[in-house]
Amino acid sequence: MGMSAPMGEGMLSEYLKEFGIEAPALKFVVPGDDRIRSIPLADAKTYGGMKMAVEDKLQIVMDSVLDPFNHPIEPTDWEIVSSTWPYRFGKFTVVGQPMFSDPVMTVVWEAKSLAIKMWLPSPRRITMGQLLTIVRGYLVQLLPSPLDLSLAPRMTRSEINNVIIQDGWSRSRDLVRVVQQTWCTKCLQQSTVFVGTTQPKGVVGHSHSAASTEPQMVFVVVQNLWEMIPGMVKQYRPDLLVPATLTVSEVKAIIEKQFWDTLGLEDEDERDEVLWAHEMLTAAADGCWDKIADQDTMALGNIRMAVRSIITYKE
What we know:
With 315 residues, this protein is α/β, with parallel strands linked by helices. It contains nine helices and 13 strands. It is globular.
């Protein structure tokens, strides 16, 4: 039996209307990220409109777009392909560069001499309010820290609850737009956002300190993933905040200890039967994850990309 001809936009629209179905939004993804972003058909009907919608929704400066079968779509063919079955209901892959090119965001609390280096998701679509919620979650880990830290910030939960973002930006503002509008030459090298508790004027300024007064306590965020076999069931655990001076091996040992404490396993023989593998990986530019080399000597603060721990264990 031969393959039926693709259903054009007019025929498809009439077919959907007949059953009272509204045409669904187009679905877009970026390489290395399985999250789906939806863009209404009306906003992406033309190639130019789609590029503008992608820039706004995904924070990506688009170079090209692939159809659901990973074939490049010519700009002149976009209107036909995007409205034709089966392409219309698949996922289009956006190829391009993030508007926020540096994945590293440094959050500084000057009054506490504290800095947190975190890796933003790609696309970097996040509001200032979402960033503040994430930062507060990280700070809570230091209250008190489960790690035996020689140097730790002194703070209270009340202070954390009252932490605000620099310059009084609205919590609904887009982080990328805020960073672009800050016009800070130092932030062109690495984006920095300042936080603090409410000042007399209710505003935390964006002000880089002199080198002599740079934050003494620098922490790095490590992503934490468990995979249970058989079935490779993924369990996303809370990110872990660790001192930037620790080596990858030291962080790996900390994560394994937390894993055993969670499972309540103390017997070494039982542990050997449960733990299948534990990998420490770093994000690559192509969206993949690579094993970190020289883990005994590599300090976490020297790694430029996101770090992820993946524990694979048997049920």
